[in-house]
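Worked example 2:
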Amino acid sequence: MTPDRNLVSNDPAVIRSTQDYVPAGVDVAAKVGARVFAGPIYSPTGQTWPMDGAGRAATVGRLVEGLRPLAAYAVMRYAGRL
């Protein structure tokens, strides 16, 4: 992902932009018959940062919420194909 794509961002607009972007990749994967869509889609490639326990919990929480609509989209898109 590029720096402007980040499901664990503190900025809701960045999360929404990422959620708008990822389904296109799911669509391409479905069109070419891929059974898996995977990769570092949660934050910009190579991003690392120190976290304490509370920071990690908050980040994972944002990731879970950010992935929910994407997972729902993938299930809808792949329904009956796997």
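The first helix runs from residue 12 to 31. The chain has a mean pLDDT of 90.
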